[in-house]
Amino acid sequence: MGLFDSMRKQLENAAKTAQKAAENLPDSVKQIDVDKTFKGFKKAGEDAVQKFKTGSTDLYSKTVNSFQKKEPTPYIRSEDALKIMYYLIAADMSMKAEEMEMFDSIGREVQSDYEAHRNEIIGSCNSVIVGTTDPDEYYDIIHEQVSAAIHNSQNSAEGDIMPALLIWNMISIAFSENEYSALERRLIRSTARTLGLDEAVPKEMEAAARTMIALAKEEEILQASDRKFSEVKVHMDEIAERKQTVMENIKALMLD
Question: What is the separation of C-alpha 58 from the centre of its chain, rounded to a whole number of angstroms?
Answer without folding.
Answer: 22
